[in-house]
Structure formats: C-alpha cells, structure tokens
Amino acid sequence: MHELSVCQALIGQVERIARENGARRVVSVVVAVGPLSGVEPALLEHAYPIAAAGTVAEHASLTVEVMPVEVHCRKCGARGEARPNRIVCAACGEWQVDVISGEEMLLKRVEIETDALAAS
Amino acid sequence: MCRDCGCTLGPAVARAPLASVKPPAGRVETIEVITAILDENDRVAAHNREHFDGHGVLALNLMSSPGAGKTSLLEATIRALAGRLRVAVVEGDLATENDADRIRACGVPAVQVQTGNACHLDATMVHDALHELPLAGLDVLFIENVGNLVCPASFDLGQHRNVTLLSVPEGDDKPAKYPVMFRAADLTLLTKTDLLPYLTEFSPARARAALQQVGYGGETIELTSRGGEGFAAWLAWLDREVAAQRARTAQGRTARPNVQPEGALAHASARPAR
Ligand SMILES: Nc1nc2c(ncn2[C@@H]2O[C@H](COP(=O)(O)OP(=O)(O)O)[C@@H](O)[C@H]2O)c(=O)[nH]1
Ligand SMILES: [Mg+2]
Ligand SMILES: [Zn+2]
Ligand SMILES: [Zn+2]
Ligand SMILES: [Zn+2]
C-alpha cells in the first residue's frame, strides 16, 4: 500500500545516479524485492510510472526481480525455500532458522543513455 | 484513503518495458548499484536515533491495525508511570488531532503528525516532530504509528524497539496474514484480553503459534489496558528496556529494532525467483 512512497524514494536515487553520470535519460531500472520486504511487486509496477512521470526516468522500463524466501536451519544446517507465513526448515520443520533471502528491497542496476555517440 | 492505494487496483502489468520506451540514440551505460531503496529514509532514521541516544531517550514504535488499542494502552501506561518515568508521545494519524489531545489530557507532551495521504510514518515526519519535544528531559518517547498492519513495518523511524499490538477481536490468524509486520516486532502484545470470554474463537495459544511460524522469536504479553497481571508485565518490560537504553547510552552504543533486514544487502546478488 506504500508502494508509491517506495517508488518516489527509488526515483530519487535513480535521478541522483543519472545526474552523477551525466545521463541524458534513463533506459532501464532493475530492482530486487523479496516477499518479506512488505512491498508487492505488482503494486510497485503500477506506482512506478506515476513516480517517474516528468523525471529523467520517465521513459525507463522497470524490472522487478522477485527474490525467493530462503532460510538456513540452525538445527540441521539445511538451506531451502520457505513460505512467507511458514518460515520453517523444509528439511526438518525447525522454526529457529535464519532468513538468508526474501527481505530485499534493493535498487540493483540502472541503465542510462549519455550524450556520447553510440559506438556502431 | 492512502495516496499509495488509490490507483493500484487492477490486473498486474506485464514485466516487459513500457510501450513508450524509446530506442537509445546515444551511448548506453549500465551502472551496478545495490543499495536499499529506502536508503534516504534509513539515513534520516539513523540521525533520529542519534538524537534519542544523545539524550538517553528510549524510543518505541507502536504498530497495529486501527483500533487495536494503541492510544488506550498509552493512556493507561502514562498514568501508571506518572512520577516514575518522563514520557512524551508522537502521534501519527491520517487527519485528526484526537489522539494527541487524549495524550495531553494525561499530562504529558504530545505532537500530532498528520500524515495526510500517507498510511505510515516515515523518518522525516518523526524528525520534524522531534524538534517540538523536550528530548533532554525524557526517559521514553512513544511513537504511535498510523493504524495499518502493512506499510509501517517497512519504514525505520530511528526507534530502538518495535511493539506490535494484536487485539482479541481481530482474530488469532493475523500474524499469518501480515507476516512482515509481526516479524518486525521486538515485543508483541495480545490486547483486549478482557474480551476473551466473549470471543471464545480467539486462542492466545494459536496466536503464539502463528507468530512462531512467521519467525517471530520475541516475547508475547497478554493484557488489557484496564490493568492486571499482563499490564504489570508490560510495565516490567518497559523498565527493563529503559535500563538497557541507559546502559547503552553510557557505553556509547545503540540498538536497532527488528525492522530492517540485516542480510539483505549481502545476498543481493542471489538469483531471483522469477
Ligand atoms: N474491551 C477493551 N476495549 C479496549 C481496550 N483497549 C482499547 N479498547 C477500546 O478499543 C477502541 C480503540 O482503542 P484505541 O486505543 O483508540 O485504538 P488505536 O486506534 O489502536 O489507538 C476504543 O473504543 C477503546 O476503548 C481493552 O483493553 N479492552
Ligand atoms: Mg490511536
Ligand atoms: Zn497504503
Ligand atoms: Zn532443519
Ligand atoms: Zn536533527
């Protein structure tokens, strides 16, 4: 529900990166989001064009990489996937596990276009 | 209504580039970044935490759905702590000043933050409120977040601990439905337990089991804001946290709540699920 706020923060970062690198415009933005971050990928994609409108990223595509929930078991040492509301070891059922993936809310990559001519 | 929620109903859009994407004309460069999207909020939150630590104040963020009893708990707590701990409150609400008025009626300072369209507090809103409070003379600052079991969990405010309330009328399955919120808690309060005789479908044991299933490893206290054993356990938890904050302040250390994924940056290069 807070995806517009998240997108506005994202666009703020993208604008800064574009400025620092002398971008004419941003071509694409790649983010990584886990189910335990509290952000819904579909809502993020809906909110993104609204936040990007009128910025250097206005025509940039957004790719949302959805990360799996992965845990490491403190009891048996197994590493495996889990569900967001059943964060237990897939191998032995233990609930004392460390989440090693699934909490991400990251900007990973930005593709920019600069004024330099394309190498043909 | 949340500004963020207004436009989001409808089918998921394709993950392909937007139709309006232009073919590149100049040179295209790829920049690898890997930073938290909420980096700027996290920076302001860290600054808020410095304000709290600089004055030895314990900052607690209270989160729950609307009506779970956050303001009632604060009213009862302030009365119970009167003359013992110095307290102030930051109240987050969409539009009204009602909760801050209720707190001021208990005789402690309160700042109301009207979030307007935003359904959560962020670090900048709290920072603006801080400069209206006498931090130097305080032991505890309570931050009552906007009633919402989704958004508030994602925004660090600079607090030391998260306290999440689940009231008996909401049902004991809520942790399974809102895992992100309950995972973020350092303490969970099962509130309005005076209603248990009327809402026999609520099982505190099932609520505790659901909390465990989402990876919650903290303490759970059953209480009613009308007093009793559980309420005393909550006051004891507060006393322990205030003592711990004083000890940290003396040693120049701080504490962070469960809100922020520790390992997220380290695992950013892992492969996506799709
Ligand atoms: N029975 C009962 N009602 C409560 C309790 N705590 C709060 N309430 C009631 O629940 C309603 C919402 O409480 P409030 O503190 O405003 O909730 P908030 O929205 O989370 O701040 C009010 O009518 C309160 O009187 C409790 O422990 N027991
Ligand atoms: Mg309230
Ligand atoms: Zn929302
Ligand atoms: Zn195991
Ligand atoms: Zn400041």
Task: Briefly say what this structure is.
The complex is a heterodimer of chains A (120) and B (274). Helix content of chain A is 25%, strand content 35%. Chain A has helices spanning 3-20, 41-52; strands spanning 23-33, 61-66, 70-73, 79-81, 97-101, 105-117.
Determine and state the CATH class of chain B: Alpha Beta
Number of strands of chain B: 8
Number of domains of chain B: 1
Bound molecules: guanosine-5'-diphosphate, magnesium ion, zinc ion
Estimated share of beta-strand residues of chain A: 35-45%
The SS-based structural class of chain B is: alpha/beta
**Helical run tally of chain A:** 2
CATH class of the domain at 3-68 and 101-114 in chain A: Alpha Beta
Q: Can you put this structure into words, describing what you see?
A:
The complex is a heterodimer of chains A (120) and B (274). With 120 residues, chain A is an alpha+beta fold. Chain A has a domain at 3-68 and 101-114: 2-Layer Sandwich (hypothetical protein PF0899 fold), CATH 3.30.2320.50. Chain A is built from two helices and six strands; from the N terminus they run H-E-H-E-E-E-E-E. In chain A, a hairpin with a 5-residue loop joins strand 3 (70-73) and strand 4. The longest helix of chain A is centred in the N-terminal third of the chain and has 18 residues, at 3-20. Chain A is elongated and about 55 Å long. The mean pLDDT of chain A is 94. The two termini of chain B are 32 Å apart. Chain B is an alpha/beta fold and 274 residues long. Chain B has eight helices and eight strands. Chain B has helices at residues 39-54, 70-81, 98-104, 123-130, 174-177, 179-183, 204-213, 229-251; strands at residues 26-36, 58-63, 87-93, 110-114, 140-144, 161-167, 187-191, 219-222. At the A-B interface, helix 1, strand 1, helix 2, strand 2 and strand 5 of A face strand 1, helix 1, helix 5, helix 6 and helix 7 of B. Strand 6 (105-117) of chain A pairs antiparallel with strand 1 (26-36) of chain B, so a sheet runs across the interface. Bound molecules: guanosine-5'-diphosphate (GDP), magnesium ion and zinc ion (3 copies). Guanosine-5'-diphosphate (GDP) binds next to helix 2 of chain B.
